[in-house]
Design a protein that fits this description.
Elements (H helix, E strand, L loop, with lengths): L1 E3 L4 H14 L4 H20 L6 E3 H13 L4 H17 L26 H13 L3 H13 L3 H6 L5 E4 L4 E8 L4 E6 L2 H11 L20 H12 L3 H14 L4 H8 L4 H12 L4
Antiparallel strand pairs: 1-2, 3-4, 4-5
């Protein structure tokens, strides 16, 4: 069975990126997935084949090649899963049904997260930070698990705070899918957001502003966290997910709160816990 796709490899990758975006995948995930498919396409071309005329046999040969190259089991599984997502995007999910992989035990690699003592250090750094905006960002990423791209899109109206009762929630809107999810805020998070917003006397709708009084950009947040706290946003997101899984929160609830469109993505945290890697 084969599937012919019109257009260049770039056209195919662009279509795949749009498909992933509609599924609610983050910008970083889309970039990673497209990179995997681009590498697969380059390998096909180097072997006289083309991703625009893909076959089940081509996929099997590539998996075999990766095993010969002694790629780790976890890496091969990630590549296989990405290819599987790609063939679903072209309405040929069955193309990977008979692809055989190594019989070795699957190596579940736990996403990086902050251990309890590292969280304590992070919060100590936040306590010493004079930028109320930076502190609010750290607490929001750590205690809501939102993606940095989502954080940058927040408007002030998406942040519902009741300082008197010390409760609140964030509304994460997905414009592509036309839905939203609501994440409850911790008491500490309510305090930090309230302290930051109390300093705002502008009319800008964005929740977080750059030093130039414009909506903050993802790269600005990433740079700030790396330079001031020595951490990356995804680590804070993974820490949030791990914490919920450790507490026994149902995976479907964790998936909803974290915005995972597929509960199997959330399951990796549970698997890591079961395998003693966290």
């Amino acid at each position: 069975m084969d599937k012919k796709c019109a257009g260049t490899t770039k056209d195919i990758l662009d279509s795949f990126a749009i498909y992933l975006s509609h599924k609610g995948r983050s910008e970083n995930t889309i970039k990673t997935y497209c990179g995997v498919i681009e590498s697969f396409s380059n390998w096909l071309e180097g072997n006289g084949k083309s991703i625009s005329n893909l076959t089940n046999h081509d996929i099997q040969l590539y998996i075999d090649f990766l095993e010969v190259e002694k790629r780790s089991v976890s890496t091969i599984n990630k590549i296989y899963n990405t290819i599987n997502t790609y063939v679903k995007s072209i309405d040929l999910a069955e193309m990977t049904d008979n692809v055989k992989r190594s019989k070795k035990k699957i190596d579940y690699v736990a996403p990086e997260y902050l251990k309890e003592e590292e969280v304590a250090v992070l919060l100590k750094q936040a306590k010493a930070d004079t930028s109320l905006r930076n502190v609010a960002i750290v607490y929001t990423l750590l205690y809501t698990g939102v993606r940095v791209s989502e954080l940058c899109k927040f408007n002030k109206e998406d942040c519902k705070l009741n300082y008197k009762s010390q409760t609140g929630q964030l509304i994460v809107r997905n414009e592509v899918q036309g839905n939203e999810r609501i994440i409850p805020l911790t008491k500490e998070n309510v305090h930090k957001l309230h302290d930051y917003l109390s300093t705002r006397n502008d009319d800008c709708e964005a929740l977080f502003l750059s030093n130039y009084q414009k909506r903050i950009a993802a790269r600005t947040v990433q740079h700030m966290l790396k330079e001031e706290y020595g951490v990356y946003p995804h680590k804070l997101r993974h820490t949030f997910c791990y914490d919920l899984v450790r507490k026994g929160v149902d995976l479907s609830v964790v998936a909803h709160l974290s915005g995972h469109s597929d509960v199997n993505v959330t399951r990796q945290y549970w698997l890591a816990l079961q395998n003693g890697t966290i």
